[in-house]
Structures
1.
Amino acid sequence: MSVRRHIVAQNLFSKQWIVGGGAVRLMPEYFNDLSNVTVGEDIKGVLQIFNPMATRTTIGCPQNCEFCGVDKIEGEYRELRDYPNLPIICDSNLTASSMEHFERVIVRLISIGWCDFNQGLDVRLMTQDHAKLIAMIKNPIIRIALDSDKLKDKWTEALEMLLSAGIAKYKIGSYVLIGFNSQPIDDWRRCEYVENKGIKALPMWFHSLDAMEHNVITEHQKELGWTERKRKHIMGWYYKHRGEKPIFVTND
């Protein structure tokens, strides 16, 4: 939306523009009425323009989660044989790759000495072999995710595998999807479940795949009890320890 505003506001119709990225792939028709705008393909090296330390070793994700647009944005899951050897891994689902590919990625990261699994590792696919390989990296930054209460057992099993492999808790954080078919109390309790295991909870607000603005409370979310104040409350507490934790949040 901001790109379109920029083009229109600056009266830049005399120039040709190429747009791309996840949002454009989800809504390619959004620029149909602008004759000077073309939807382009990925440009090699564009990720490193935004973050010189970032790379991708796989594209896509086979899980097709209801709340996620990766399957629509990235297409069929595939492993990359050639990719920049950099420490910040931005794969949508590295854990879904073959063990041959996963081991090859880890070997490269061992030589760097540190890494950041920025997009998270899939707890549903985590094995002891994955955990042992990750533990060979001197300073890994690991993120997993607890997207619903149904995944608590898988999440806990994956955490135990990582800890058993010798990875310290402070090196692990967990995304927690909030605002997706869930009430505020449900999401507070899921965040607390993570924190009670000694892991930093990182709540992630759900945006509908056709959202045009950031952090807007949808009608469905309002029906579930969400307000902007409640969204800011949970985000502020876990990221900045701002405010107070609700008294209705109980330990699991």
2.
Amino acid sequence: MSTVGYGDVELRTTLGRLFVIIFIFIGLGLFANFVPEVVHIIINRKRFDGSFTGVSGKTHVVVCGHITLSSASAFMKDFLHEDRGEVDVKVLFLGNFRPNQELEAFFLRWFLKVTFYQGSVMQRRDMERVKMHKAGACLIICDRFTSDQHKEDAANLMR
């Protein structure tokens, strides 16, 4: 009714034409509201699910375990400290969660050196995605502030 058709149906009354005009504007408004949400869902779903494509001659390390903003910041500060000289290593964080906005902003700040992948080191597919077999190192970050150190150690040993 609101599309350009073959002309076999035409509105003759003013009320009918007014209804179609309002119907078109409401439809366009609803469509305009839903498009950004759908795009956001599609982008977020694929954002952390990709695979690492390494550059030949460049090393990468995989960091997993207790990844938080403070632990990731401390790791990067220590890993890229000036005493180590120029470090040309790609850091891949692998976590079985979606990063919150603060952690995502941290990863974006370091986007040339850091990439986050959603997954688990217990899954073969995820280890292949981050090219674990070609990594220069696999580092496991522990929760230093845990109340149950034995449980944390057991979880890290499984990783």
